[in-house]
Every structure is written in C-alpha cells, then in structure tokens.
C-alpha cells in the first residue's frame, strides 16, 4: 500500500509539476490583490481535486457515456491553453487588462481555466488518475489521497507566489508573464499535436 501511494504521488507530481506551474500562476494573477489571488489559488486547487476525484471513480464511464476519448480531450485542452498563452503574450490575462468592469466578469474565473483545467488537472493528470485507480476500491482511495497531498503542497506554493512576486518586482513579472505565455502556447500546441497523432494513429 505504501509503495502504491509513493508511486501514485510521484506520478502525479511528475505530470502536474506544481513547481513549474508556479510561474504560470504568478503571471495569471499579476495585478490582482492578495485577497483575489488567494481566492484564485483556493478555487483552482479545489476544482482540480474535484475533477480528479470524479475521474478516479467514474472516468471510464464518463468517456463512454459522452463518447469522447482522451485524445479529444488533449485536442480541446491544447487549443484552450494555446489561446490563453497567446493572450498572456499580449498582456491579456485579467478583466482589467481586457477593459472589462469587474462586476461583469469574476476575476477568479481564471481559477477554472486555465489553472484547474487544464494546467493542474489536464489530460495527462486525468489519464494518470484513471490508470492508477484501475483495479479496486483500495487503489482508488490511495490515488485520491496521493493527489490530495499534492494539491495541499501546490496550494501552499501558490500562497507564496505573492511574496515571490514582490521580490521579483513588476518589471520581472512582466517578463515572466510574456515568457510563460510563450511556454503555455507551446504546451498547448504540443497537446494539440499529441491529440491529433493519437486520434489518427499517427507516429
């Protein structure tokens, strides 16, 4: 059981990689006050956990009922991430930067996309959770506990982002935003390519 837990945790950590996602979070919440950024962190982690929880216990059923495949999820997620990354490159990542009044758009919406889905609970994480949970109820519980621990670690990392942001300064945060936008765009395109390859059985 301990071995299964360690393997599950390490698998999730490698796929989700909260450390590499921290700069993306910092770029997305740039300009938001501490209260909003904390809400975004909390909301994104809870939603990511809820997504994986559902797929651990009924992933295969969901795919079967809706007639979708993991490759289709990769394609959709890839397009979404690429568009968000492109917007970040152009400095569009919050309601204010889009000249939209805050009462017209919830500033914590970014917690749902792109943070919770597909960055934290993307196709890779979902596929990993389904694979790890296969077998019996014990495996499902171990998988959930392992992901819950990773979510907790990720949450505390996100809460430290404000301190890191102040240390780096506005200029450096702008640079990070552009760089992460480029990286997210690249990740999105790669997800799209992988999805197309899988869907059409291409090498």
Automatic annotation (TrEMBL):
The chain crosses the membrane at residues 6-28, 40-66, 72-89, 110-133, 139-159, 171-193. It is found in: Cell membrane. Pfam families: MarC. InterPro entries: Multi_antbiot-R_MarC. Keywords: Cell membrane, Membrane, Transmembrane, Transmembrane helix. It comes from the Bacteria. It is a multi-pass membrane protein. Belongs to the UPF0056 (MarC) family. This is UPF0056 membrane protein. It comes from Streptococcus hyointestinalis. The lineage of its organism: Bacteria, Bacillati, Bacillota, Bacilli, Lactobacillales. The gene is yhgN.
